[in-house]
Amino acid sequence: MYFYKEKKAKSLVLWGTAPAFSGPSQAGRVLVENRARGMKTVVIDPRFTADASKADVWLPIRPGTDVALGLTWIRYIIANKLYDADFVKRWSNLPFLVNTKTKMIIKGNELFKGADDKTFVVWDKKTNSAKPLPFPYDDNLEPALEGTFTVNGIQCKPGFQLLKERAEPWTLEKGGKECWLNPKSIEKAIKIYTKDTPSSVALGVATDQTPNSAQAAQMSAVLNILMGNFEKPGVMLQRYEDKGVGGVLRTSKLKGFLSEKQLNKRLGSKEHKGMLHWWIAQPTAILDAMTTGKPYKMKAWLERSGNKLGTVANAGAWVKGMSNLELIVHMYMYPTSFSAYADYLLPVTEWLETDFITASFNQMFARQATTHLYETVNEAWIWARIAKRCGELGHENCKRSFVKANTAPESPYFDTYEHQLDEWTSFFGMTWKEYKAKCPFEYIPMNRFRRYYVYKETDPKTGKVKGFNTPTGKVEGYMESLIVLGRTGKPFTTFPQSPASKDYDPLPYYMTPSENPYNSVGKKFPLVMTNGRLPFWHHTTLRNIPYLREIKPYAEIWVNPMDAKKYGVSQGDWVWVESARGKIQAKALVTEGMAKGVVYMERFWNPETLNSATHGWREMNVNVLSKQTAPFNDICGTYTLRGYQVKISKASGAPKGIWQKPEQFEPWMPKVSEPTKTVEL
Fold first, then answer.
1. Cβ(104)–Cβ(162) under 8 Å?
2. What is the distance between the alpha carbons of residues 367 and 348, in angstroms, rounded to a whole number?
3. What's the CA gap between 297 and 289, in Å, rounded?
4. In 40, 83, 163, 480, which residue has its Cα 20 to 30 A from 99's Cα atom?
5. What is the pLDDT of residues 200-220, one digit of tens each?
């Protein structure tokens, strides 16, 4: 379809993402549309993926060092003046003066009478003085990007200068040494990104799974800001007009129903306020409460994902914590390792069994159930039943949550899932029955849905250009909003919160991995572990499908030939993989498509041993090895799922009880031993 196309894309950086492995994505569409047209690509991944095999530059980075590499790119771009100076000056907040003591941007009304809330202060090179810069710009001024200035006795620097100072130590040589990369290859990659424009950075989940996660996102944003890669033909960062559809197609959080007292009980939310964006708690804080009873005793766990023991860091520690709970409920399509520890199973429908309203670009579609297996129900209905019963038992907010007048503008709970569908489709003035009969249909013309340079369009309410949806109206390379978030919880909290123990940094910074080849842990465990998806699986699902297991019956560990030789491992050997937290097995795939000093495993669990003492998660689960302890990301609380240290050694054979040959496979549904109870719905 024509609206997938970005024909003017000249280069694409795949940073910790592998579209060929992970399925449809925006980056994947850009690749398909433009690679044959000569678009250049850079792949940053320790694995020689299918995407890397076609890349102009492959940077096999040491896991956990992405921000160091990003700062190296930023330094090179600034030092060689490869950035889009006009965009940076006009449409970013990097020219704004920052009080170096408070780290806050100086507001126009602090120095100049009559300045509005979108007037900030720049150093004007024409008059050699501080001047107010009204939104969106003043062509009579020439804002300085670099320098140190004194304004009313206050030392100030432009955000750009502070960014330059932050990146200054990261030469090509230093970045190459830290990231285990050839400096010349880094330079070649940067030149592709900056000279073959329009360009984009596609940042993958790999950078989310370290304590440096939020800073990686900042780093990526800064690179796009420096190059002006926003809302122009050929770039991925676009803004679409959806007439509010995006706000309709989701289950409500009903944030306003949570009291201030209950909000402040959300574990880890004081220190890691970025989690409030998703309305979640910090994993290790949850584990600590389960284990120690502090700051309060946890009594129950209602789990609605697949196999949590395949996704949480240091899975063994969680099993110990779970033993202190009074109730565990697992809500899923079929039993997994987590189910073995549950008191109750609530069987839910798979997506092919579920009706749903969905949008794709400017068109609406009805996803309709194609089958219905076993005694399952839609998950949304289960949550509604729980809320309904709690209301009947006297919980006032649960009663109120079924009344639309109480929940507006969010949706209420409904007595049936069909009523929920009718609520969603009422946005279009239809019932679900009418909606699915009409689908597919355009809800907005393409020329209104997809357009470029939205930030330059005139806002009819103000008569000024729209700019961006940020406090300054500009893209924000200097993220003062993070300081505000850490101190107050705004804009994600429903009640003001007390400050975190330290301010969040408004600029990206690098954290050396706490386990690395150069410290005492690395001496005992010399290899760096990473993980990621393969095209056969989605997260921890589908391991119980015999036909897929014929393709990939066991977990592999990818090892560079030099490392394999050093540690006595040959192609196809069963090996032990051990970290400071545990020990598992995998089968060796010896390949030059793995960076030296790094190993890779995909998340894996074994349904065939579900009823054994291992419950299927101990044999080959890479997250037996990962690290759930500090350091955490200051903003989001993320921990170390990648970039920790392991060692390998040859094993005498395969783990007991696992399938190894295709002829062993039989279609089956694993059974769960007592005392688990299945609830009849």
1. no
2. 17
3. 6
4. 83
5. 999 999 999 999 999 999 999
Say how far apart CA 677 and CA 291 lie, in whole Å. Answer: 25
Burial category of 543 from C-beta neighbours within 10 Å (exposed 0-12, middle 13-18, buried 19 and up):
buried
b/e sequence 617-631, b meaning 16+ C-beta within 10 Å: bbbbbbbbbbbbbeb
Query: Beta 327-332 vs 344-347: how paired, if at all?
Result: parallel
> How far is C-alpha 335 from the geometric centre of its chain's CA atoms?
27
- DSSP code string of 339-407: GGG-SEEEEB--GGG--EEEEETTEEEEE------SS-B-HHHHHHHHHHHHHHTT-HHHHHTT-HHHH
Contacts with 205 (C-beta within 8 Å, 6 or more apart), sequence order: 16, 17, 532
pLDDT tens by residue, 589-640? 999 999 999 999 999 999 999 999 999 999 999 999 999 999 999 999 999 9
Are the CB atoms for 619 and 603 separated by under 8 Å? no
Q: Are residues 607 and 560 in contact, defined by beta-carbon separation less than 8 angstroms?
A: no
Distance CA 365, CA 422 (A): 14
Cα angle at 232 between 229 and 235, to 5 degrees? Answer: 55
**In Å, what is the CA distance from 324 to each residue of 243, 285, 319, 320, 341?**
48, 15, 9, 8, 12
**CA end-to-end span of the chain:** 42
Q: Up-side HSE of residue 545: CA atoms within 13 Å toward CB?
A: 10
**Two tokens, residue 430:** 């239809």
Kindly give the residue spans of alpha helices, DSSP state H, lying in 237-375.
245-248, 260-263, 283-292, 315-322
pLDDT, mean over the chain: 92
For strands 97-99 and 154-158, give the pairing: antiparallel
Q: What is the CA radius of gyration of the chain?
A: 27
- The reported pLDDT for the residue numbered 665 is 54
Q: What is the pTM of this model?
A: 0.94
Residue 284, CA distances (Å) to 208, 267, 337, 441, 630 in order: 16, 9, 20, 45, 9
